[in-house]
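WARN retry 2 of 3 for item q-0093 after timeout on previous attempt; input resubmitted unchanged.
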Amino acid sequence: MTGRSIWPLYLADIVEHGERVARLLRGREWDDFEEDEVLRQAILFSLLAIGEATKQIPRSLREAEPTVNWRGAAGLRDIIVHQYFGLDTEILWDAASVHGPRLLDAARRLQDGLDRRPAE
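OK item q-0093 returned
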């Protein structure tokens, strides 16, 4: 993709994984999350992908959605990768159930803005 930005692909990843987390958590409560290792691992992977993708979104776009903790998403990715042995299940639940929907909504708005841009 010489000369073309690939960050829209990362934005699409955020939406895809955000939607996956939302589907996985639909109708679930904290106890379900805490007791279901497969559910936690699936969500953990999506949070990892979201965190990596947020690092690739241009600052100007992140600043257009200031209510989202973009830095927190990227930081969680780093913790998952480098300090996985110290992961706190409650923090993962909070990231997925509280912060995840906000980030998903923001990523969708950013995508909608891209869809309305004139073709280059």
